[in-house]
Design a protein that fits this description.
By secondary structure, this protein is mostly beta strands. The protein has 1 helix and 12 strands. A hairpin with a 2-residue loop joins strand 6 and strand 7. The longest helix is centred in the N-terminal third of the chain and has 23 residues.
């Protein structure tokens, strides 16, 4: 929003507002990390989770591996997605989705899972791999440069 006032102070004010809006837009785009939705769910319930994967840099994403928190039981995955399930003793420990996501684009991957019965935070660690062989680990705490997505479990119904 640009406000116009008739004196030179108004021009400076307009410029400050325009610069502030541009900086806000840049800051907003810079926080487009790998996320898992919803951010809150009920303990013990079945939930549809959606993993949103943007390509923030200049190199295309080629895969995302999402590590399943202990106690979460994956029951189904959305059709039409290329994925591999990694398991230990018949329990899914991670899902690797394969898709080419160009810079400036994002993809969403969905699955259904049963939440653990107890209230707790589900931390979804992930590794995003790029076409040039590099990767980004999304496993840091909130506020970190590469935070792991978190879903808070509330009391069951």
């Amino acid at each position: 929003m640009v406000a116009e006032v008739g004196d030179d102070g108004g021009v400076k004010r307009s410029l400050r507002i325009a610069i502030g809006c541009a900086l806000l837009a840049l800051a907003t785009s810079a926080v487009a990390h790998v996320t898992v939705w919803p951010r809150e769910s009920r303990a013990g319930s079945h939930e549809k989770y959606v993993v949103r994967v943007p390509t923030e840099g200049k190199v295309a994403t080629v895969s995302l591996e999402l590590f399943i928190p202990q106690g979460v039981r994956v029951t189904s995955l959305a059709a039409g997605q290329r994925y591999e399930l990694k398991k230990t003793a018949e329990v899914t420990t991670s899902i690797v989705w394969t898709a080419r996501i160009e810079p400036g684009e994002f993809a969403e991957f969905a699955f259904v899972a049963r939440n653990p019965a107890e209230r707790k935070d589900l931390t979804w660690k992930a590794v995003q791999r790029f076409v040039d062989g590099t990767s980004t680990e999304w496993n840091g705490p909130r506020g970190d440069k590469h935070p792991a997505p978190v879903t808070v479990l509330t009391s069951g119904s």
